Amino acid sequence: MGKERVRLGTVQETLLIPLYGRALDAKARRPVLRDERARVMVEGIDYDFAKFRGPSLGGAVLRSAIFDGWVRRFLAEHPDGTVVELGAGLSTRSYRLDNGRARWFDLDLPDTVALRRRFLTDSERTTTLAASVLDTDWCDEVARTGGPYFFVSEAVLLYLEEEQVRSVVRALADRFPGAGLSFDTGGGAMMRNQDRNPVFKTVDARMTWTCDDPKALEGWGLTLRESRTFATPQPDVARTWPWRHRYGMPLLARLVPPAVNSYRMNLFTLEKGR
Prior knowledge:
Layout: E1 4-5, H1 16-27, H2 36-44, E2 45-46, H3 55-77, E3 82-86, H4 93-97, E4 103-108, H5 110-116, E5 126-130, H6 139-143, E6 149-153, H7 162-175, E7 180-186, H8 188-192, E8 222-228, H9 235-238, H10 243-246, H11 248-255, H12 257-261, E9 263-270
Parallel strand pairs: 1-2, 3-4, 3-6, 4-5, 6-7
Antiparallel strand pairs: 7-9, 8-9
């Protein structure tokens, strides 16, 4: 069989960056995620992945590990819960972390879903939804599981305008109060340096939403529970990282604070009426 050709929109193309990062990690002597499915997908997609170079590839892997840590904690507390990935791309989180009991929903735009379905299939407990994160129709299907719920949005909301992000958060808070929501934010230092990033030089999409202080988002219907950087992962997550990441990231954060500290992974609780 031939390789699958990529037909993705400008922003959707960026999903190939973390996919390639996870594939390279799977080949490493000491992998962080051990994502063999990512390696298989890269080998089956007709795309010049080699143009992606630089620390962003490794950063994508560490970011996924931090989000994985929160999902694992949720499933440990709620083994029959529902995990919803907003802008799933070619994420394999539902395969990496499934406990045999949870319900999983992977949501993304139709062109991304078409590519995803070439490599990842739904099951009795795993459902792929072709929809925009800005829509709300898909909420009905998710709500039928009864919860509790945990929402993950990794490297997605950054590409929206601030008011769009606010509308997504408020819609989720109104429909799923008390649920967990995790997403990443980028401060001004990161946003201003996108064109210097070797990976972003190879794609046309650019992140638009700037957030210097995740705590300031609490007025949107959120309560901030944790905010992490690559230098401050959860202790149980850090223990799984090779020493070059475990000790190198805190050192880098001291040497060039804006480069590390302006990008954050955040865990919130959705609060109705806030």
